[in-house]
Amino acid sequence: MTEAAMLQDFPMYAYLPARDLARAPQFYETKLGLQPTEERNGGVVYRFANGTACFLYPTPNAGTSKASQAFWSVTDVDGLITALKKRGVVFEDYPDIPGERSAAGAITGGGAKAAWFKDSEGNILALIEEAPGSQ
Predict the structure, then answer these.
(1) pLDDT at 3 over 70
(2) Which tens digits make up the pLDDT trace of 75-95?
(3) Cα separation of 24 and 26, whole Å?
(4) CB proximity list for 66: less than 8 A, separation 6 or greater
(5) CA angle, 55 as apex, 53 and 59 as ends, to 5°?
(6) Shortest CA distance to 58 belongs to which of 97, 12, 20?
(7) How high does pLDDT run on average in the chain?
(8) How many folded domains does the chain comprise?
(9) Does the residue 135 lie in any domain?
(10) CATH number of the domain to which 56 belongs
(11) Following DSSP, what letter does each residue of 18-82 receive, concatenated?
(12) How high is the pLDDT of residue 5?
């Protein structure tokens, strides 16, 4: 391992804070269709493609960040917006973000199409579809 690439070769995972660890998994499992893979240290682990994962953990600080906590790199933002809305997910509207809006509500700009929503704990999560050739 070179000093310049100290962390480049290791997977990175997301921590998602939850005020109510009874309510939060319900959102992730019912609204997003996720399945927990394990319970650990008072929290819940969800695993995703390519070995990535997130850890939903209890803390009174959940929902206090005004920035995105995590995002999914997806291939069809508009299709996922439509499917998630049918499950009761409410997407955020950010009128100050420049870019074209799709009929589903995604914003295109900066080489990607994106949409944001909040989980039951107030964490901001995103769906990001990179433009072809921008990866």
Answers:
(1) no
(2) 999 999 999 999 999 999 999
(3) 5
(4) 124
(5) 160
(6) 20
(7) 93
(8) 1
(9) no
(10) 3.10.180.10
(11) ES-TTHHHHIIIIIS---EEEEETTEEEEE-GGG-EEEEEE-TTTT--SSEEEEEE-S-HHHHHH
(12) 66
For 23-41, the pLDDT digits (tens) are: 999 999 999 999 999 999 9
CA distance readout (Å), 15 to 64, 71, 125: 14, 12, 12
Give the H or E element holding residue 134.
none
- Nearest CA to 14 out of 49, 53, 66, 45 is that of 53
Q: Do the domain assignments include residue 113?
A: yes
Ordered DSSP codes for 91-108: B---TTS-SEEPTTS-EE
pLDDT score at 135: 58
Per-residue pLDDT, 131: 81
Mean pLDDT of all residues in 104-130: 96
Sole residue written with tokens 């995103």: 126
Residue 4 has pLDDT above 70, yes or no: no
Query: Longest Cα pair distance anywhere in the chain, in angstroms?
Result: 47
Task: Give the domain extent around 51.
Answer: 3-130
User: Burial letters for 29-56: b for 16+ Cβ neighbours within 10 Å, e otherwise?
Assistant: eebbebeeeeeeeebbbbeeeeeeebbb
CA R_g for the chain = 16
